[in-house]
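Predict structure. Chain length: 220.
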Amino acid sequence: MSGGKRIRKPAAAKPARTVKAKAIAKPAEPAMDVAVGRRIRDLRRIRRFSLEMVAARTDLSIGFLSQIERGLSSPSLRVLATLADVLGVGIAALFGASPSSDGASDQVVTRGLQRPELKLWRTGVSKQLLSPASADNKLNLFLVHLEPGGSTGDELYTHDGEEAGLVLEGEMMLTVDSETWSLKQGDSFRFASRRPHRFSNPAQDAKAVVLWVNCVTGAG
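Prediction complete.
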């Protein structure tokens, strides 16, 4: 069109640059599963228990036990407590270095930066062992962290011993037998571990921290 303004065609859009997605690091938690599985296997072998024997005493399948020992499955706290009972130890024996055949330890002090930790990452529960680690300890002190919504599961479970604790931060729901309590900062508890129990953090935006004591009365 003469005399008219030339209309420029819009430049063709440049093809979008392909942004390479950064490799997402695999979670470190499965390494914890491998370490816990190795400790369970070592304890089983020290006691000369076969997988078949442990399976029969725990009502867990041989395949599932094998997966736990190889770090291919992340066991719940209920399963770990059951295995610890059968192996004749407290759950603290699953922390730290592999147990020795006699389980003996002369350690008295555990430094703050040396606390072994058992992180049950699928359930939002982690336990730091505050007392020295040894397979033959009867009394153990833990600092339990419950992530928002963290829980031992819907199923009640039992194990040997007694336990007590003090809520340091947040809120914890504790069920023993058929009764449930809401425990908040400053509240404490004690019960025989053979009574069916479970616990959880009902908050969706705040962590709960509990100072927890376990006394194994039947191991040894």
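Summary: The first strand starts at residue 117 and ends at 120.
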